């Protein structure tokens, strides 16, 4: 149960400056609503010393005070940045002076938009006695490490221990941050009682195979949890702000206590860990320039053939990494006709046969080589492409792709696992003239996990007749296609559609997801309008 009691007492002294309480504030509305904020505006009430602003979630019984010291001279707008996406809120405003308080005025219910950003990685701790994608490293008193609770969350609690506790909850494999864009890390946490504050950290050099003590790695703390929320509350972090976007990284929660008595150990709860964003490294740079000259691009270019090599170009309305040996040779810097060019990735983590590489592929013109572009992978890159042992994972039928358009393709599964895998796009061409060299382009490089069977589910965010669908798709073999039936003879093939129902009643929404191998799964939810 969740029982709350909130009492607000105000002592008002009669003042000759104010004979009566202020009037009710007018035109109190919410505007510019986003997934993370609501902007509130109202007209200034005369003879007001200050305002009291309150908020209530649709599932709450009572309002909570957000601010009780807004100056009476306030004339503008105020942002509430502590809201969550897909939730319904009501706000209440009261004007106050030394003669009393005005009547309260409420906004109409305000619903924040649902965040439909794809979930790249998640852990809900729903499997009993399992930390899921995390590993628990206990360096203190064994019985006081992180524990999995029956209610489906993880908890650290050193209270009652005979000494110092030091515990880590670390992702088993690093997050492939270089292959994500617009990503946010979200996690629900709750701090109870007093003690050292838990910390959330990132490391790009942690090696679980050789480091029994995680402290031997270099960690960057991106959040120290000093909150005092009475319920699990979502925290959001833009990891790109830490400047680690070109390196894969482990995420960890570090929990410690100085003893087992009161004030020495917080009780820390964790749930609903998720990385939201879009999968795909995009090649973006100055048009018609060599990628090797771009110091901000973390990929490495190795040119062993003609003077031409990998460069930024735009074809079919999309910029990417292109190679085209046409016209090289005569007069070229190396005076070599054949192309032998490598585009080598930053390291990434892979789970063996559960991992594939997805990317956008472009081709045009003919070639005398059956496979002018190959995708290779290794778990032991030596720094020299010639001495490294590579495994070919080139997508089947790549050379039969359509001409002069971008096609999403998937590699063969990677037959190895590890945290330091490297891929390379290897372009070769035997000649320089028409029909002997193909123009090749790649972009949006995504390392995808196809672990487990295909599974799909979705939640709905509803405001009246407007319903937003928020899907979650895992397993199978990407890419996926979606088909929606809204139960009123209308359909959609969008990945995360919104639907406005014009009639009242109960409707069954059905989602059918198909992966690239033709496997299908269906999920059903109901809404009442």
- Overall structural class, as computed from helix and strand content, comes to mainly beta
The Cα radius of gyration reads 29 Å
Largest sheet: 6 strands, antiparallel
The percent of residues in helical segments reads under 10%
- Share of residues in strands: 35-45%
Whole-Å distance between the termini?
A: 29 Å
List low-pLDDT spans: 1-6, 330-334
The count of strands amounts to 38
**Average pLDDT:** 87
Shape: globular
Count the helices. How many?
0
Plain-language structure description:
The protein has about 525 residues and is mainly β. It has no helices and 38 strands. It has strands at about 30, 40, 50-55, 65-70, 75-80, 90-95, 100, 105, 110, 120-125, 135-140, 145-150, 155, 165-170, 180-190, 200-205, 220-225, 235, 250-255, 265-280, 300-305, 310-315, 320-325, 340-345, 350, 355-365, 375-380, 390, 405-410, 415-430, 440-450, 455-465, 465-475, 480-485, 490, 500, 505-515, 520-529. Strands 3, 4, 6, 7, 8 and 9 form a six-stranded antiparallel β-sheet that branches. A hairpin with a 2-residue loop joins strand 6 and strand 7. The relative contact order is 0.10.
Write the layout of secondary structure elements.
Elements: E1 29-31, E2 38-41, E3 50-57, E4 64-71, E5 77-80, E6 88-97, E7 100-101, E8 105-106, E9 110-111, E10 119-123, E11 134-138, E12 147-149, E13 153-157, E14 165-171, E15 180-192, E16 199-203, E17 220-224, E18 233-237, E19 250-257, E20 267-279, E21 300-303, E22 311-315, E23 318-323, E24 339-344, E25 348-351, E26 355-364, E27 373-378, E28 391-392, E29 407-410, E30 417-429, E31 439-449, E32 455-463, E33 466-474, E34 481-485, E35 491-492, E36 498-500, E37 506-514, E38 520-528
Antiparallel strand pairs: 1-2, 2-5, 3-4, 3-6, 6-7, 6-8, 6-9, 10-20, 11-14, 12-13, 13-20, 14-19, 15-18, 15-20, 16-17, 16-19, 21-24, 22-23, 23-31, 24-30, 25-30, 26-29, 26-31, 27-28, 27-30, 32-33, 33-36, 34-35, 34-37, 37-38
